Amino acid sequence: MAEFSSPFFLCLLLVGLSIHCQHVLGQEDEVNGQKKTNPPEQHFQAKGNTTGENMAYHKIGPSNADFAFRFYRQAASQEDGKNVCFSPVSISTAFAMLMLGAKNTTLRQTLEAFAFNLTEIEEKEIHDGFRHLLHMLNQPDSGVQLSMGNALFIKDGLNVHPKFLEDVKSFYESEAFLSNFQNPPEAEKQINDYIEKKTEGKIANLVKDLDPDVLMVLVNYIFFKAYWKSPFFEHMTQEDHFFVDSKTSVKVKMMHQKGFFGIYHDETLSCWVVEMPYKGNAAALFILPDEGKMKQVEDALLKETVRKWEQALEQRNIDLYLPKFSVSGTYKMITLLQNMGLIDIFSKRADLSGITGNPDLKVSKATHKAVVEVDENGTEAAAATVIEIMVGASMDPPPVIKLNRPFLLLRKNIRSILFMGKIVNPKAP
Fold this sequence. Notes:
- By secondary structure, the chain is an alpha+beta fold.
- Helices cover 28% and strands 35% of the residues.
- It folds into two domains: 9-227 and 327-390, Antithrombin, subunit I, domain 2 (Antithrombin, Chain I, domain 2, 2-Layer Sandwich); 234-325 and 394-423, Alpha-1-antitrypsin, domain 1 (Roll), CATH 2.30.39.10.
- 48% of the residues are buried.
């Protein structure tokens, strides 16, 4: 079997803040040759209460799933007829951090857009949930390499509210570095070097054309590396047709294996569901709609639907065909999120005064990019979100499940949707 090079899943979030203030609160030291700020002592510390942490984590799970499917529908409608891929947990985590600085209507809209209801969950419980999610994702796993972290790059001289620094450190374990945004090439190199190191060289030179008015950049990274529990054998891979639509087909490298997998055919929605576990605590869920039923399945994508599928999975011996593919997706998220009710944060009405005490801030850019590659041994993928904030078993014959037409995929770990996509054309970049 050929060696598979570095299968991984990766997300990055960059948040740029453009404001004018006096100085950065917190002491400085040098980290890898960079000035690092040390936020004041945290008000909230992880208590190590397993029961409480589990409760906090489980409380944010439904909201994160709701957001994932709502965002998918927006992205799929924008990318009609194209591949879709993004990391919902990256986007949710990023905006959860921004909630720490959001006030009034801006906070309310952000909570609603990300499916949080304060009558069901308290604001602190949301951040406790993300703190526990961060802790869970960073737990050692013999079969999966997975890490998640955050960093703030702050303009030297910017007056950041100590409570904001305390909370991003306490809840999101964020590092903090001083940056010279008046010299964009220098700041770009500093941030890109950090990202390249954290992603083991998988993403380089991500930050380009940095606006000199940006005064803060927040980086959130997720690194995922896993191999199929039951890998495909390369000699079984053969060229075959993938039917993009009724009139178009492309030649792909179609992987094939016979084995036991969790499968389910949803008679109501007319689709096959196949679960492929990775080594360790992660799995991929492939959803193959019957011909002409993609829209029907997409419209029914809800956490309740996925829960029903997972509960109905039955281990059966099947003939499985899956194409090798490498796809990508890039989204300018402002319009997508505005369609989901998040409006003020992108306008002069934004209230992010919890970051600096100055209400004159807004999100000027929100960009997400993701790529994913699948082959015989596993998955290789990368994603990035950029946001800038500126002033203003059976006796029957085994079923054949051949993913040779558009299908959906979810990549999950500890009940979180790390990655979600639709493969319309495996040959499209």
